[in-house]
Design goal:
- The chain is mostly helical.
- The chain has one domain.
- Helix content is 72%, strand content 0%.
- The protein is built from 3 helices and no strands.
- The longest helix is centred in the middle third of the chain and has 38 residues.
- The protein is elongated, with a radius of gyration of 27 Å.
- It starts with 9 loop residues before the first helix and ends in a 5-residue tail after the last helix.
Length: 93
């Protein structure tokens, strides 16, 4: 196993030591390994989310090209009209 040395400001060093003293981690190395695993997991999750988002956008574009979906300007205009109508018919003084 390789060794790495890092420098931390005193407040960060104290924070890590408190985490170890609380029993949540066995050592500084254990704490750093956990941070790295969490970072790796976050990157994988972000990549998965972006892939799903791209697929969703592509599906939406295909639906629009096939004549489905709704025009955003028309939807917004209808919503604004509904809001205005609700505001005008509000019985409150």
């Amino acid at each position: 196993m390789a060794t790495m040395n890092i420098s931390l400001p005193d407040p960060m060093r104290d924070y890590v030591q408190k985490r170890i003293d609380s029993g949540q981690y066995a050592s500084v190395s254990d704490y750093v390994r956990d941070l790295i695993r969490r970072d790796q997991s976050a990157i994988v999750n972000e990549a998965r989310w972006l892939k799903e988002l791209d697929a969703s956008i592509e599906a939406g574009l295909q639906e629009m090209q096939a004549g489905g979906g709704h025009d955003l300007d028309e939807v917004c205009d209808a919503l604004i009209a509904d809001i205005r109508q609700s505001a005008n018919s509000d019985p409150r003084p």
